[in-house]
Design goal:
The protein is α+β, with helices and mostly antiparallel strands. Helix content is 26%, strand content 28%. The chain is built from four helices and eight strands, in the order αβββββββαβαα. Bound molecules: nickel (II) ion (NI).
């Protein structure tokens, strides 16, 4: 295994559409996933997508710990999950706003709208299929990571760029989210 260099916002690999993986069980994809896992662990991320380590292929890994789960039924802890060639479909039209960060946008945080519930399907390293419904933070992580495969970073999903800020300042000057959400409601 090896620690890989993480691409930062501005690198063209983060704007490219990543290529489908033809052979999810190949040694090269297993090697890539092992290196992504080591890199994510070292950097302290919840998830990482292959383009973030300069590999333009449709592979993401993530895990969902207990700390940011919502009380929605399909928002549950997930052990390390590897998605190859993932496809997402929204369930319903509800959206939720919450803070996100990204290893490719170090030091910043932003409030991002995401589909509240999704259905996602992907291939696995052992030739199987993952087919899940997700809600809340679990759904958010999957949407964030899969966006990387289409060249999209979370700031491009934001609707109010005043809420893109340095993490330190966001902690120092907390945003009244209830007030912000009320404003969003008015503008729709
Ligand atoms: Ni990211």
């Amino acid at each position: 295994m090896a620690l890989l260099k993480i691409a930062r916002m501005g690198h063209p690999v983060l704007r490219a559409k990543a290529a489908a993986v033809d052979d999810p069980g190949s040694a090269s994809i297993r090697h890539l996933v092992a290196d992504m896992l080591e890199t994510m662990g070292d950097a302290g991320g919840t998830g990482i997508a292959a383009p973030q380590v300069h590999v333009s292929k449709r592979v993401v890994i993530f895990r969902v710990g207990p700390e940011r789960l919502t009380d929605l039924e399909d928002d549950t802890e997930q052990d390390l999950t590897v998605l190859i060639n993932p496809v997402i479909e929204p369930i319903g039209t509800e959206r939720a706003f919450a803070w996100e960060g990204c290893l490719s946008v170090p030091g910043l945080r932003g409030v991002v709208p995401r589909h509240l519930k999704i259905h996602y399907r992907a291939q696995t390293l052992d030739g199987g299929i993952i087919d899940r419904e997700a809600a809340g933070f679990h759904a958010r992580v999957v949407q964030h990571e899969c966006d990387h495969l289409d060249g999209i970073l979370y700031p491009q999903r934001m609707t109010d760029h005043r809420l893109l800020m340095f993490a330190e300042e966001a902690q120092r000057y907390p945003i009244d989210m209830a007030r912000f959400l009320a404003t969003q409601g008015e503008s729709e």
